[in-house]
């Protein structure tokens, strides 16, 4: 999570490395606009996920946080059936390549780990 936080901070402050591989495209143009605010917001979320001591939380809060994480990460792995996730229909772009091989599997792993933490 710390590495993801650092990467989003880099993008938030103007970095361009690898942006063509992390945003879905259509006809060579990004489907979503990446802004400094969106990158810094994502960095903040990753920072919180890395920094919050889940083990020492109240059991009820811990349970709902882990359920929420599992649902969000699983939903991202499944995707929206066009540009994101295992069942996307748009393929053949740099993002689609990396999404199938890295991003969606990592999201599925995160969902599984959050779910297993509930046991």
Main sheet properties: 2 strands, antiparallel
Low-confidence stretches: none
Count of DSSP H/I helices: 4
| Average pLDDT, all residues | 91
Please give the radius of gyration in angstroms.
15 Å
Shape from CA axes? Answer: globular
Lateral arrangement of strands in the main beta sheet? 1-2
- Write down the domain tally: 2
**What is the structural class?**
mainly alpha
Total number of beta strands: 2
Helix share, percent:
55-70%
Strand content: under 5%
H/E element string?
HEEHHH
Cα end-to-end separation? 22 Å
Fold and architecture overview:
There is one protein chain. The protein is mainly alpha-helical and 119 residues long. It is built from 4 helices and 2 strands, in the order αββααα. The protein has helices spanning 2-12, 36-51, 59-78, 94-116; strands spanning 25-26, 29-30. The protein starts with a helix and ends with a helix.
């Amino acid at each position: 999570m710390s590495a993801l936080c650092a990467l989003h901070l880099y993008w938030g402050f103007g970095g361009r490395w690898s942006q063509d591989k992390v945003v879905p495209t259509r006809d060579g143009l990004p489907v979503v606009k990446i802004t400094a605010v969106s990158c810094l917001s994502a960095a903040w979320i990753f920072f919180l996920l890395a920094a919050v001591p889940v083990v020492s939380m109240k059991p009820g809060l811990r349970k709902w946080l882990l359920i929420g994480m599992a649902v969000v990460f699983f939903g991202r792995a499944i995707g929206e059936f066009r540009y994101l996730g295992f069942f996307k229909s748009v393929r053949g772009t740099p993002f689609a390549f990396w999404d199938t091989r890295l991003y969606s599997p990592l999201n599925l792993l995160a969902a599984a780990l959050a779910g297993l933490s509930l046991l």
